[in-house]
Amino acid sequence: MQSPPHYRKLGEPSSDDLSVTDFMHLQKQFETALMQTRETKTRLLLKSISSLKEQEKLLEEEKKVLQGKVHIHINRLVNESKGKRKRKRKRIAIDLNSIPE
């Protein structure tokens, strides 16, 4: 039993046998497939955006923690240098890799 013309594989010849109704049905199938593809793409993009926003939030929190540690470390170094200071200003170099966790 032969399948209806609108169910032919794309590579099969003789599209001359297709009627206007068959072409309209194919067009509807293509439009449906395109719409589903766009919906999937949109869903995946929204999921990716949500994930990136969550990641951004975590990085902002980590930044605040690290800024607090740097601030504490700087204050400690400044206070230590004040005790050793005798009218001479010193520059302080901070190695951020040596900040305790």
Structural notes for this entry:
- The model has no long low-confidence stretch (mean pLDDT 82).
- The chain contains one helix and no strands.
- 64% of the residues lie in helices and 0% in strands.
- The termini are far apart.
- It has one domain (19-98).
- With 101 residues, it is mostly helical.
- It is rod-shaped and about 95 Å long.
- Residues 1-76 form the K-box domain.
- This is K-box domain-containing protein.
- Residues 81-101 are annotated as: Disordered.
- InterPro entries: TF_Kbox.
- GO terms for molecular function: DNA-binding transcription factor activity.
List the helices and strands and how they pair.
Blueprint: H1 20-84
Organism: Salvia splendens
Domain K-box: 1-76
GO molecular function: DNA-binding transcription factor activity
Task: Summarize the structure in short.
This protein has one helix and no strands. With 101 residues, the chain is mainly alpha-helical.
